[in-house]
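During data preparation, we tokenized the protein backbone, and the record follows.
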Amino acid sequence: MNERAENTASIFCDVPCHLGEGPSWDPFENALYWFDILGKRLLRQRAPGEEPTIQDLPAMASAIAAVDAEQQLVMTETGLYLRDRGSGLLTAHQAIEPDNPATRSNDCRTHPSGAFWVSTMGKKAEAKAGTIYWYRKGELRPLFPGITIPNSICFSVEGDVAYFADTSLGLLWRVDCEPATGLPVSEPRIFVDRSGQEGGIDGSVTDVDGVLWNAAWGAGRLDAYAPDGRLLRSIGLPARQTTCPAFVGPNADRLVVTSAREGLDAAAIAADPEAGKTFLLDLAVRGRHDPAVAL
């Protein structure tokens, strides 16, 4: 099946982000968190149409993961910080490239084992300046260096497969993993090749059936891929620069997608007025929430 479904999205949050990214539903609070990376903001909202809570951040950040009912873990341009849920206070936890001012954090996700796969990239998308790291229980390891725009980090339900992409190449890889640790145990192999095609491979999530949902940057759509890499469907979205999906709600049965207005001038924004907003899809899915990070 290969279908394009239009007009399935409504606005979850109408606050425009310069670079909306890193959406994550927090089951402890039943709320969606996401970032405006370039705006240095963390946004939180429980339901469509609510007024979001916005926290200004001291640095660029791109991902948040639950630790427990009191704390979260935030990935920033200099590393991992613990965030107190009550006060929003950030405390340094694990430095990652702190002495490299040319890089910032990008796509991240928690493996079923509690390992946190995090990534860096050049602030100006410098070629091969980024790296994907593995963090678990105080240990940090580089996994895949030399990536220009790391994206699409996500995992199978069993934790035996990881996915990641380099948006600049239009390639999405899969790699076998040790389920108990989230460490790779094979060489990556190409899962989807979109090189030279419209729609950069941006953020992704996988559902309980193994379907990978990918935001296509520059194409205004969400693509769904079967576990064998076949394109199942493409869903139109109201902004061209879609960035990352997330499963939301207590049952993880809906999808939101963030977007960006990065690089758009006034004329481009006038032609793409919903750019940077966060969208809710009118589509039932069999999703799941990311697990807590193992510190």
The radius of gyration is 17 Å.
